[in-house]
């Protein structure tokens, strides 16, 4: 029998929130299990971007993952990507993903055994136990849902063979040929990112 207090905190989702929560817990000597269904830990949708044109929408000097070290991200950029080290600049999101992954790995190394990574999809919670799609059970003393935002929902009715409902899904734009005309519905930040991706 497990003593509940000795169980880890179970964190579902390892984007920015899950990764940095596990890191902060480890620094306090608390164990956690990170469950992520995607291939990569620490990226989530926002920081899985691959193009340099896909930038943060916040200046680098305000993107530290550590409130106690405001220059943490700009210091990391100076070391790992000096071309983007301007604190007032808007760095590529892919670099921010690498920063989150680095900081998670660094914390794991400094606090061995406190963070366990599990690749899988959480489908149900029973009490404080998370059940994965393969039936595995991950018991904890608390469960944190760090699953981010749901994928975009189509708000326009009707089917079109070449309609792309989620521009952030992998390879969403890869079937578009250079001569194709593309109609984009919506005019926010995702539209800007899609235009930049099509131009590239
Ligand atoms: C395109 C885009 C650009 C953005 N740009 C910025 C920016 O410049 N600056 C900024 O501060 N914020 C930005 N954001 C907001 C950004 O998403 C948040 O700041 C932050 O990344 C959210 O982190 P999260 O961990 O909550 O969610 P996410 O990063 O979405 O992570 C959630 C994770 O949970 C996993 N998951 C979900 N369900 C399950 C399940 N059932 N089982 C297992 N795993 C699961 C997902 O695979 C994912 O990895 C942007 C968002 C988007 C979509």
How would you characterize the overall build of this protein?
α1 packs parallel to α3. A hairpin with a 2-residue loop joins β4 and β5. It is built from four helices and seven strands, in the order βαβααβββββα. The protein is 25% helix and 15% strand. It is an alpha/beta fold and 200 residues long. The strands form two sheets. The chain has a four-stranded parallel β-sheet, with helices on one face. The mean pLDDT is 94. Flavin-adenine dinucleotide (FAD) binds next to α1 and β2.
How are the SSEs placed, and which strands pair?
Elements: E1 9-12, H1 16-27, E2 32-36, H2 72-80, H3 93-110, E3 115-119, E4 122-126, E5 129-132, E6 137-139, E7 142-145, H4 189-199
Parallel strand pairs: 1-2, 1-7, 2-3
Antiparallel strand pairs: 4-5, 5-6
Ligands and ions found:
flavin-adenine dinucleotide
Give the count of helical stretches. 4
Sheet/helix structural class = alpha/beta
**Mean pLDDT across every amino acid position:** 94
What is the strand arrangement across the widest sheet? 3-2-1-7
CATH class of the largest domain: Alpha Beta
Please tell me what the overall shape is: flat
Largest sheet: 4 strands, parallel
CATH architecture of the largest domain: 3-Layer(bba) Sandwich
Low-confidence stretches: none
Radius of gyration: 19 Å
Helix content: 25-40%
Strand content: 15-25%
CATH homologous superfamily grouping of the largest domain: FAD/NAD(P)-binding domain
Distance between the termini: 56 Å
């Amino acid at each position: 029998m497990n003593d509940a207090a000795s169980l880890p905190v179970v964190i579902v989702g390892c984007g920015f929130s899950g990764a940095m929560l596990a890191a902060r817990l480890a620094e306090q000597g608390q164990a956690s299990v990170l469950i992520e269904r995607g291939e990569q830990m620490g990226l989530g949708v926002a920081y899985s971007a691959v193009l340099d044109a896909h930038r943060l929408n916040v200046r680098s000097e305000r993107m530290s993952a550590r409130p106690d070290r405001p220059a943490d991200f700009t210091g990391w950029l100076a070391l790992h990507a000096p071309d983007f080290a301007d604190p007032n600049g808007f760095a590529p999101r892919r670099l921010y993903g690498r920063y989150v992954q680095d900081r998670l790995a660094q914390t794991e190394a400094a606090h061995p055994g406190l963070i366990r990574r599990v690749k899988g999809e959480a489908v149900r919670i029973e009490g404080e136990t998370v059940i994965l799609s393969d039936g595995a059970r991950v018991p904890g003393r608390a469960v944190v849902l760090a699953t981010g935002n749901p994928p975009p929902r189509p708000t326009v009715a009707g089917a079109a063979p070449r309609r792309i409902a989620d521009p952030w899904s992998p390879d969403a734009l890869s079937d578009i040929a250079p001569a194709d005309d593309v109609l984009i519905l919506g005019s926010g930040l995702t539209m800007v990112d899609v235009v930049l991706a099509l131009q590239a």
